[in-house]
Design a protein that fits this description.
CATH topology: Hypothetical Protein Ychn, Chain: A
CATH class: Alpha Beta
Radius of gyration: 15 Å
Number of helices: 3
Oligomer: single chain
Helix content: 10-25%
Number of domains: 1
Order of helices and strands: EHEEHEEEHE
Number of strands: 7
Strand order of the largest sheet: 6-3-2-1-7
Length: 138
């Protein structure tokens, strides 16, 4: 690479439920900041973190802001890889159909809409984590 620096690969691991702590919201804010600085950003949702992507979230009963719709805007920031651990879904009685639809427009494919959520098993997650330059866990 002449005259260009390689973009560092950042993986943000989300392990906690979306509400009850500030970890999920803080992770999302840090992801948006990183993406604004043109980092190569991916997210991983494992353990109770898979609940962050649940469809139909309603926070009116607990008096906190529902930030879940912000995940759908990630494609606009070129955050297009949201890895969800298959085993974490299964352990919680969930399937990928229980998650909100999140997609991005692929400008290299005539702006075709493509899914951002990628289901990966634990061994794939281990490989994915090893490939990153920076891993942050929330």
């Amino acid at each position: 690479m002449t005259g260009q620096s390689k973009r560092k690969k950042f993986l943000y691991i989300n392990r906690r439920a979306p509400h009850g702590t500030i970890y999920a919201l803080e992770s999302l804010e840090v992801v948006l900041i990183g993406a604004a600085f043109e980092q190569d950003v991916s997210l991983a949702f494992i353990d109770d973190g898979v609940y962050q992507l649940m469809a139909g979230q309603d926070t009116s009963g607990i008096g906190v802001k529902n930030f879940s719709k912000t995940y759908r805007a990630l494609g606009d920031y070129e955050v297009r890889k949201l890895y969800v651990e298959r085993e974490s879904l299964a352990e919680r009685g969930l399937t990928v159909e229980d998650l909100m639809p999140i997609s991005f427009e692929d400008e290299e494919d005539d702006y075709a809409e493509k899914p951002s959520i990628l289901v990966a098993d634990r061994s794939e997650m281990v490989r994915l984590i090893a490939e990153q330059d920076v891993v942050l866990s929330f």
